[in-house]
Design goal:
Number of strands: 12
Helix content: under 10%
Protein name: Ssu-2 homolog
Strand content: 35-45%
Organism: Lepisosteus oculatus (Spotted gar)
InterPro entries: SSUH2_homolog
Length: 277
């Protein structure tokens, strides 16, 4: 019932992260039924439209993904609805614009099962179409019966946080455990545009920092970088190899709150031979 610990190795794993909060803008054309007052109709523009980057748009919170939609002033145009060609109505698809459909009782035969006239259509084989109230036409779904559409330009402003990170550790602990593990923050900085640091005692961290900063600038050529922040954190990791009965395995104690990770835990209720903390 006792664990035997025969190899214990302690080290500091380093986690580096670079967050780039960037803004991307795109313009798209929208439309809606003409139920509002339009500034101008289809024709020559009477004033210059503002450029996408001339409009003011600020993120609600830094380093959080978010999207804003801004209607560009001076871009409203009224045009006829392409769905109904300005007629406000479209042919009914259920009755093919005839106003009548096949009787659902006799299936269009005009007779009942006992060779009597169908009570549903009185032998006429057809009944009025319920979808269009026997009119043969329905209200246009595109313009909701207005006959016109109001087109306008809409600005889509996307604020996105891009993360680049790296883990330096000689232990075989899974990498997904270290980013959220508490540890000692060795370096942290925030600025509009950062430069890779070279003060770390680990050369790999210095080169990774400079490479991630350069990559963030290349990937954001069509965007505007609002802010960047980088952090270097040291997480204590203890790797322990144990022997229990006829089985051996490895577990890790990591983070300043001493979390334990063990994939091949032999038994839930055991008594450890060593008191750790």
């Amino acid at each position: 019932r006792t664990w035997h610990l025969y190899i214990i190795r302690q080290e500091a794993a380093y986690y580096y992260s670079l967050e780039t909060f960037a803004e991307h803008r795109a313009v798209c054309t929208r439309y809606q039924p003409h139920t509002y007052k339009i500034l101008r109709t289809s024709g020559p523009k009477d004033r210059e439209e503002p450029a996408p980057w001339d409009l003011s748009a600020s993120p609600a919170k830094m380093f959080q993904n978010q999207v804003q939609y801004i209607r560009i002033p001076g871009t409203d145009v009224v045009k006829g609805c392409p769905g109904c060609r300005g007629q406000k109505w479209t042919p009914c698809s259920f009755c093919q614009a005839s106003g009548k459909v096949r009787c659902p009782v006799c299936h269009g035969s005009g007779w009942s099962s006992k060779r009597r006239l169908c009570w549903g259509c009185n032998g006429q084989r057809l009944v009025p179409c319920a979808a269009c109230m026997a009119l043969g036409r329905v209200c246009c779904e595109t313009c909701i019966g207005k006959g016109q559409l109001g087109y306008f330009q809409e600005l889509r402003v996307e604020h996105k946080c891009n993360l680049g990170d790296h883990i330096h550790s000689t232990a075989n602990i899974p990498g997904h455990l270290l980013p959220s593990a508490p540890g000692e923050v060795l370096y942290e900085s925030t600025a509009e545009q950062l430069h890779g640091f070279s003060t770390s005692t680990v050369d790999e961290i210095n080169s990774i920092s400079q490479r991630l900063v350069e990559e963030s600038r290349r990937t954001c050529r069509d965007c505007r970088i609002i802010q960047q922040r980088q952090m270097l954190k040291a997480v204590p990791v203890t790797q322990v190899q144990y022997y229990w009965k006829d089985k051996s395995g490895t577990f890790f104690i990591y983070g300043s709150d001493h979390c334990i990770y063990c994939t091949d835990y032999p038994k839930k209720k055991i008594i450890c031979c060593t008191q750790w903390f």
